[in-house]
Amino acid sequence: MARPRSEAARAKALGAATDLVLTAGVRGFSVDEVVRRSGVAKTTIYRHFSSGNELMLAALSCTIAPFSTPDTGSLRSDLIEFANETLPMIADPLLRPVMLEILAAAARDDELRELHAAVVREKMTPLRVIYERAQERGEADPALDFDRAFDLIEGPFMARWLMRPDMLQMLDVAALVDRIVVGLAAKTN
After folding, report:
1. Looking at residue 39, what DSSP letter applies?
2. 64: burial class by Cβ within 10 Å (0-12, 13-18, 19+)?
3. Could you give the CA distance from residue 67 to residue 8 in angstroms, rounded to a whole number?
4. CB 62 within 8 A of CB 27
5. Could you please report the per-residue DSSP string of 110-174?
6. Helix (H, G, I), strand (E, B) or coil at 143
7. Has this prediction a pTM greater than 0.90?
8. Helix or strand run (H / E) with residue 187
């Protein structure tokens, strides 16, 4: 008979994993090191997490607060509020290198790519809701599907995050959102 899962052991392992991924990064992350830091048995860890990658992504999820879904009644205001909430997280000097490592590792590791995609889908939910509300209010082109809208919304922020991270703090969010809103409202042929 299998032993019941211990939530205290899970929390302890997750805490150690979170600290490890933030200090050692993806390349320095290992379940053995989580075992050493947490004192939780490897078998117990694998009762809670199917792989080291799953544990690592769960640890990263602990460092990122769930995004809220602003509902100001305006696409522009919702996007500004959302961006102002998320920018400090993506600019975090501890998280940024780890997030870059995850992106690079996901290109080579199928399991990590699938887990990363699941996390991204979860994080896209607030933007999907914001966009669908804007379509219902007539602020966005009803023919523009969410995947293309997401690219228009996230693209400029991701470009800055990847190419010019030192400029994130100087980003004029309102001016950028104004351009994005124009693109989302434009009728496609």
Report:
1. -
2. middle
3. 26
4. no
5. HHHHHHHHHHHHHHHHHHHHHHHHHHHTTSS-TTS-HHHHHHHHHHHHHHHHHH-GGGGGG--HH
6. coil
7. no
8. none
In the structure encoding, which two tokens stand for residue 188, read together? 């496609």
Question: In which residue are the tokens 């809103």 written?
Answer: 181
Task: Report yes or no: 86 and 124 within 8 Å, Cβ to Cβ.
Answer: no
CB 188 within 8 A of CB 143: yes
Amino acid occupying residue 95: L
- CA separation for the pair 121, 117 (Å, rounded): 6
Over the stretch 31-88, which tens digit does the pLDDT of each residue have?
999 999 999 999 999 999 999 989 988 888 787 778 899 999 999 999 999 999 988 8
**Cα 16 from Cα 62, distance rounded (Å):** 11
Closest among 34, 21, 31 to 98, alpha carbons compared: 21
User: 31-38 vs 7-24: helix axis angle to the nearest 10?
Assistant: 120
What are the E-state strand segments in the chain? none
- List all residues 6 or more positions away from 4 whose beta carbon is below 8 Å from its beta carbon: none
The tens digit of pLDDT for each residue in 5-18 reads 688 999 999 999 99
Cα 26 to chain centroid distance, Å, stands at 16
